[in-house]
Amino acid sequence: MSILLINIHYSIRLALILVLTLSFSAFSFSGQIELSNALPGSFGLRKSVVSMHEQRYSNLVRQQTDFSCGAAALATVLRYGYGLRVQEEDMLDGLFAVSDIDKVREQGFSLLNIKHYLERIGMRGRGYKVETDTLLNIKIPTIVLLDLKGYKHFVVLKKTEEDFVYLADPALGNKIMPKQKFMDSWNGIVFAVIGRGFNKNSILVNPRPQLTARALNNTFAPLSNAQLLDYGFRHSDLF
């Protein structure tokens, strides 16, 4: 009996150490932990761990300069909405080709610059003036401009709920912002990227897509004008 109790206590102690180790690792690093022989009866068990930092910046393109938030936001939409293998550098090269470089370095890119670049690669960009109460109806990721204490900053608006908005911020990562705080910073315009190959189950708007054969049948169809109405764009485009 005493030997059995010792074995039980030993197993419990190992289990507690394992739980604490995994909990700490989630905050400090990412990787794969080998658990074989750590517990009685385990057979090569592996545990993938993703750090909090990686989670914050997952599924978005980070900006590398103080003026490239627009380029990174566009790269985020093209990569995770359209499946294009693009980096921020690709967007910078393309946007500089249709922009005034000195003006960009001083003020950053504009939505008009982004629109002109998209036209060069066979896609379209449309800016819409959207009322607050229609944000809930928009079902595709869009690029929006926020005024953060005087600093103009492009982010990707992934989706809107009743009291919160979900953003992919090229500088600060994925975040959830109170809707009222967003409204106080937003200029009322959303910019939609339109082209072939849009994934309606994009992780930008659906973090855990549950795909079925029926859903996949029309997943990557191009967006039509009629579908844009269905996605919440019921106002005339601005440019």
UniProtKB/TrEMBL annotation:
It holds the Pfam family Peptidase_C39. GO terms for biological process: proteolysis. One of its GO terms (molecular function) is peptidase activity. GO terms for cellular component: membrane. Residues 63-193 form the Peptidase C39 domain. This is Peptidase C39. It comes from Amphritea opalescens. The lineage of its organism: Bacteria, Pseudomonadati, Pseudomonadota, Gammaproteobacteria, Oceanospirillales.
